[in-house]
Design a protein that fits this description.
eight-stranded mixed β-sheet; about 260 residues; Rossmann fold; AB_hydrolase_fold; 3-oxoadipate enol-lactonase; AB_hydrolase_sf; alpha/beta; hydrolase
């Protein structure tokens, strides 16, 4: 495994073969994909820390979905990657959808976990309020946010049976920088839906039956707009799909890649 700095992004790479690019969501990092690395056997795995998240520094330009797409495309060009399977979670699924539309030559397939087209209008103000809390209270604010996410974004089963998963979700959020997290919230609050009918690559949509962000009915409707998309709903799972249901998530990825060969 190697960690490199490309276009201001910290990127972990490992393995050889066809590239797969992994994009985390809000409050995430390259470690969102650690539990499912077995699904990428025989591939070159490229795990990105988005600008302002985890180890990647906050750029001078304000964070936005378009900015994420631009920097990922530039990083892949610098790494001489012409096409890759793309895997994403939560906010990262919005980035991945726009990447597939704006740079269709780069995207071989999409596997989206906890996917959404864009935040509902009612949720945008909540994201802005979360950004304000992170700015105003700093680390203490991130702790409040992390505790609320653990409570509200994981399944009943996870809370009852998997305390280590709860700790991992909490630590993922608390490890963000306050300003980086705040700007990431604002980028998500301003996200617009991509015209997903234009996506022409094999697409897998995986969500949890208790995911309040990638709600099953919304993900099913999203899947109906993407030609040939497969929708999977995991039982006893909230929004942190690969943390809450790692074995099931890995199995879905393996089946998806096998079918696409």
């Amino acid at each position: 495994m190697a960690t490199t700095l490309v276009q201001g992004l910290y990127i972990e790479t490992q393995g050889d073969g066809a590239p797969v690019v992994c994009i985390h969501g809000l409050g995430g990092s390259s470690n969102n994909w650690t539990p499912v690395l077995g699904a990428f056997e025989g591939k070159r795995v490229i795990r990105i820390d988005l600008p302002g998240s985890a180890r990647s520094e906050l750029p001078a330009q304000k964070l936005s979905i378009d900015g994420y797409v631009d920097v990922i495309a530039a990083a892949l060009r610098e790494m001489k990657i012409e096409q890759a399977d793309v895997v994403a979670h939560s906010m990262g699924t919005i980035v991945a959808q726009h990447l597939a539309i704006r740079h269709p030559q780069l995207v071989k397939s999409l596997a989206l976990f906890g996917p959404l087209l864009a935040p509902p209008d009612a949720g945008r103000e909540g994201m802005r309020q979360r950004a304000a809390l992170a700015r105003d209270k700093g680390v203490a604010g991130l702790q409040e946010i992390a505790d609320a996410i653990v409570k509200g974004a994981t399944s009943d089963e996870t809370k009852a049976q998997r305390p280590v998963t709860l700790a991992l979700v909490r630590e993922s959020v608390m490890r963000q920088s306050p300003e980086g997290y705040a700007q990431s919230c604002e980028a998500l609050a301003g996200a617009q839906a991509a015209p997903v009918e234009q996506i022409k690559v094999p697409t897998l949509l995986v969500t949890g039956d208790q995911d309040g962000v990638g709600k099953p009915e919304a993900v099913q409707a999203m899947g109906e707009r993407i030609a040939g998309a497969k929708v999977v709903v995991l039982s006893g799972c909230g929004h942190w799909t690969t943390f809450e249901k790692p074995a099931e998530s890995q199995a879905q990825l393996q089946a998806f890649y096998s079918a696409a060969r």
